[in-house]
């Protein structure tokens, strides 16, 4: 086959594909979970540009959905935001949301501009070390201010590591006001014979110096005079005397160091105390002000199966406050945490909730439903409050209806909570609603709904609809409305199903269509009335995002395997298009939002210039070897399905996690399938089927940080997707073009993938997890003795 070359320029931040210049009337915009916004030509699937969404001063660390009203208008997205590395202006290259993001930066120049961000946590700079790029661990994180020297007047930070103090040699005055930091926290510098040295733990234990950088608070045990920092007790391994003098901080609690039975110096936490292993002499329990008769215990479970003792105990909570213990129906004794109160499980007797916004409300109810016990009694209603999913909330009297109802965040009449602002269960990870300029991929923050919502759908009037999926302040499985100027979620309809799927607006009937693994549902946004629509969708399909396509008169749906489908909402029919939305869903890069700009193009089922996948079949079960070198792999998983009455529903899945899998010579070599193509052979040793699938056009490079990390095949034929990278091989196929029959036992199933000048071989035989006339599923196969014929 003729050689082919593909040139792709990719940089995290803003990335353009070579040759993608020009104006496209119709553009399909795809938002991924990583916050990457891709623009595709809906007629050809060509990626026009890739841009990382970055509102001013922020980076998008999670994409929860993208939507725009049919016919145009501002697009909006629900996203998780993190802070940019503003403290270090040189750090402009966002590398992702985990430590390994830095590893994708291939040069020292890129690494020194790179940073990563965790959702809800501070940014971390990348550092070049040993010829590679890593997230800053044992180094100076230039994205955040240096840690302070708590408990001291020292203000001059010398740097990271004890050696940083040496920069103040000969400056006794400067040394006396300086400190350094390491993985365990901050420690002071000290002057000795004209040198400024770091007072590390070993020097302090030896009595050479005493670090006056301490914890936020002091150990209640005066004999504990050595502070080891954050989880630093282990540093004193082998020195029992020093361990007995030391303490550390962990999870914002001070803990005494103790020597364990194995000789290690470890820490005494609440579980260690509860199990009788140690006594934490550094901690003094807080008072149980609401119920002084209760006695402090390390953990409530010490009174397991003893309800009377449990009712008289309390523990120290994560925030340092007192949490009353209570007995569950199953006999377990657990603490009454803040989340437990809000879920209606208990009331913390040590610190009973109060209506801070209106102290005159003094009647604490058992839950939201109890407000209705004061229907037709406005005076009593005005004195009552409760603890609900959104925190402490007031009862609200509706004079027109003569009812006392609970004031909740999704209240249809938008009541005002007299006790204060509603609180999300997870404020740190509450997504933001942002406006997105699709042409320039710029974004501006509009606000936050205060809870975990996703799949935003604007209706063109400023109203945005969205789904809730996880346990939060609002109903965890519902459809909500966000009004302009008031982003508090307003309940439209409660939903069912484990996975709520994708959401889009039908411009014709004005209903909101939700497509999930359990069906297609249409909801009237005014009445909340929901209608179920039958579809022919395969049971394995996982809808991730959808949008309306005028030229198709149908929805476009992106699935979990990056495929793009047409969904006819009237007939309920689903057909896969020739397009793929690009991404690695199994690595967290999944499509979560679709917006189609333009009205002229409907994504095709086939590309006119595409070389389709060809299939040849035979009845031979020969497994003779060829002149190609064969690499025998262990198999992780095989799945074959076959329904003779419905051949379109056939499936093929193969996976190997064999560590010997490599890319051989890599890009441009004889092993490069983008240049040389390949084939897939699947053979039943019983002779019931044997098929060879040609893999010509359809290969592409998978790049990270400018380097080829693997190869990927995508087509609309029998074989839909192949992913090949070091240590991982995945094959997925579906449809009537697959040649496989299960009515008769196929015996062992041999698989051979030939790519360029290499061939990988697997065999799934012996015991199978499932073997029926319609399904064969096998796992954990040993490497075969020989290959299926090519």
Q: Tally the helices: what do you get?
A: 9
Radius of gyration: 31 Å
Main beta sheet:
8 strands, antiparallel
Please give the number of β-strands.
Answer: 55
Which tags fit this structure?
790 residues, mainly beta, six-stranded mixed β-sheet, 9 helices, 55 strands, 5% helix, disordered N terminus
Would you write up a description of this structure?
The chain has 790 residues and is mainly β. It has nine helices and 55 strands. The strands form twelve sheets. The chain has an eight-stranded antiparallel beta sheet, with no helix packed on it. A six-stranded mixed beta sheet has the order 42-47-46-52-53-43, with no helix packed on it. A five-stranded antiparallel beta sheet has the order 1-4-3-2-41, with no helix packed on it. Mean pLDDT is 85; it is low at 1-24 and 609-626.
Explain the layout of strands and helices.
Layout: E1 14-16, E2 27-32, E3 36-40, E4 47-52, E5 58-67, E6 75-83, E7 93-94, H1 108-111, E8 114-117, E9 123-129, E10 132-135, E11 156-160, H2 172-176, E12 178-182, E13 185-192, E14 195-198, H3 201-205, E15 226-230, H4 240-244, E16 246-250, E17 253-259, E18 265-267, H5 270-274, E19 295-296, H6 307-310, E20 313-316, E21 322-327, E22 333-335, H7 338-342, E23 363-364, H8 378-381, E24 384-388, E25 391-398, E26 403-406, E27 432-437, E28 442-447, E29 453-458, E30 464-468, E31 478-483, E32 486-494, E33 502-505, E34 512-516, E35 519-523, E36 530-533, E37 543-549, E38 554-559, E39 563-567, E40 574-580, E41 591-597, E42 615-618, E43 630-632, E44 635-641, E45 651-656, H9 673-676, E46 678-684, E47 690-695, E48 699-704, E49 707-714, E50 719-725, E51 728-734, E52 749-755, E53 758-764, E54 770-771, E55 775-781
Parallel strand pairs: 7-8, 11-12, 15-16, 19-20, 23-24, 43-53
Antiparallel strand pairs: 1-4, 2-3, 2-41, 3-4, 5-6, 6-27, 8-9, 9-10, 12-13, 13-14, 16-17, 17-18, 20-21, 21-22, 24-25, 25-26, 27-28, 29-30, 30-31, 31-32, 33-34, 34-35, 35-36, 37-38, 38-39, 39-40, 42-47, 44-45, 44-55, 45-51, 46-47, 46-52, 48-49, 49-50, 50-51, 52-53, 54-55
């Amino acid at each position: 086959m003729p050689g082919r070359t593909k040139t792709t320029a990719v940089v995290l931040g803003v990335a353009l594909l070579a040759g993608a210049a020009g104006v496209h009337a119709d553009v399909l915009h795809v938002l991924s979970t990583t916050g990457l916004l891709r623009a595709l030509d809906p007629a050809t699937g060509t990626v026009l540009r890739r841009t990382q969404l970055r509102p001013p001063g922020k980076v998008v660390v999670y994409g929860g959905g993208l939507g725009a009203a049919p016919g145009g208008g501002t697009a909006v997205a629900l996203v998780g935001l993190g802070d940019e590395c503003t403290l270090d202006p040189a750090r402009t290259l966002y590398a992702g949301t985990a430590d390994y993001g830095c590893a994708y930066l291939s040069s020292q120049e890129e690494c020194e501009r790179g940073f990563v961000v965790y959702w809800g946590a501070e940014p971390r700079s990348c550092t070049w070390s040993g010829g590679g790029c890593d997230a800053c661990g044992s180094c100076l994180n230039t994205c955040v201010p240096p840690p302070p020297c708590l408990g001291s007047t020292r203000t001059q930070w010398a740097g990271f590591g004890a050696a940083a103090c040496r920069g103040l040699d000969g400056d006794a005055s400067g040394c006396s006001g300086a400190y350094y930091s390491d993985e365990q926290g901050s420690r002071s510098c000290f002057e000795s014979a004209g040198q400024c040295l770091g007072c590390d733990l070993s020097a302090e234990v030896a009595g050479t110096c005493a670090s006056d950088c301490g914890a936020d608070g002091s150990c209640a045990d005066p004999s504990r005079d050595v502070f080891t920092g954050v989880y630093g007790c282990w540093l004193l391994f082998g020195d029992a005397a020093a361990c007995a003098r030391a303490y550390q901080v962990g999870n914002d609690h001070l803990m005494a160091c103790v020597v364990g039975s194995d000789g290690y110096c470890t820490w005494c936490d609440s579980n260690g105390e509860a199990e009788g292993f140690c006594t934490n002499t550094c901690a003094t329990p807080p008072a149980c002000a609401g119920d002084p008769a209760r006695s402090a215990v390390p953990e409530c479970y010490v009174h397991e199966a003893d309800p009377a003792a449990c009712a008289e105990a309390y523990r120290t909570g994560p925030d340092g406050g007192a949490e009353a213990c209570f007995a569950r129906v199953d006999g377990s004794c657990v603490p009454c945490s803040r989340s437990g109160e809000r879920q209606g499980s208990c009331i913390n007797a040590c610190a009973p909730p109060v209506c801070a916004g209106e102290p005159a409300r003094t009647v604490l109810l058992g839950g939201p439903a109890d407000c209705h016990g004061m229907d037709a009694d406005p005076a009593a209603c005005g004195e009552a409050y409760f603890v609900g999913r959104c925190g402490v909330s007031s009862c609200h009297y509706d004079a027109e209806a003569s009812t006392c109802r609970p004031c909740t965040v999704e209240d249809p009449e938008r009541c005002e909570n007299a006790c204060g602002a509603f609180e999300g269960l997870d404020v740190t990870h509450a997504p933001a609603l942002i406006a997105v300029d699709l042409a320039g991929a710029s974004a501006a923050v509009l606000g936050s709904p205060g809870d975990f919502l996703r799949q935003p759908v604007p209706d063109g009037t400023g109203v945005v609809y969205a789904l809730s999926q996880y346990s939060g302040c609002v109903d965890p499985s519902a459809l909500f409305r966000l009004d302009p100027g008031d982003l508090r979620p307003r309940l439209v309809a409660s939903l069912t199903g484990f996975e709520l799927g994708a959401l889009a607006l039908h411009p014709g009937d004005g209903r909101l269509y939700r497509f999930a693994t359990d069906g297609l549902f249409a909801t009237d946004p005014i009445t909340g009335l929901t209608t179920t629509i039958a579809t022919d969708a395969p049971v394995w399909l996982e809808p991730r995002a959808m949008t309306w396509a005028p030229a198709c008169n149908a929805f476009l749906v992106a699935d979990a395997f990056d495929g793009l489908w047409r969904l006819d909402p009237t007939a309920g029919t689903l057909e896969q298009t020739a397009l793929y939305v690009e991404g690695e869903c199994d690595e967290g890069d999944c499509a979560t939002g679709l917006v189609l700009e333009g009205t002229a193009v409907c994504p095709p089922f086939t590309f006119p210039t595409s070389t389709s996948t060809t299939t040849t079949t035979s009845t031979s079960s020969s497994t003779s070897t060829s002149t190609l070198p064969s690499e025998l792999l262990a198999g992780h998983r095989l799945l074959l399905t076959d329904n003779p009455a419905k051949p379109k529903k056939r499936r093929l899945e193969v996976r190997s996690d064999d560590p010997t899998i490599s890319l051989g010579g890599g890009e441009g070599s004889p092993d490069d399938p983008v240049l040389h193509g390949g084939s897939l052979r699947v053979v039943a040793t019983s002779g019931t089927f044997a098929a060879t699938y040609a893999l010509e056009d359809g290969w592409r490079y998978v790049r990270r940080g400018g380097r080829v990390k693997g190869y990927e095949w995508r087509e609309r034929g029998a074989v839909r997707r192949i992913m090949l990278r070091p240590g991982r091989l995945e094959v997925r196929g579906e449809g009537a073009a697959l040649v496989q029959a299960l009515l008769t036992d196929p015996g062992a199933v041999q698989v051979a993938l030939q790519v360029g000048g290499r061939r990988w071989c697997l065999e799934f035989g012996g015991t199978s997890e499932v073997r029926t006339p319609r399904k064969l599923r096998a796992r954990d196969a040993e490497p075969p003795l020989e290959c299926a014929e090519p």
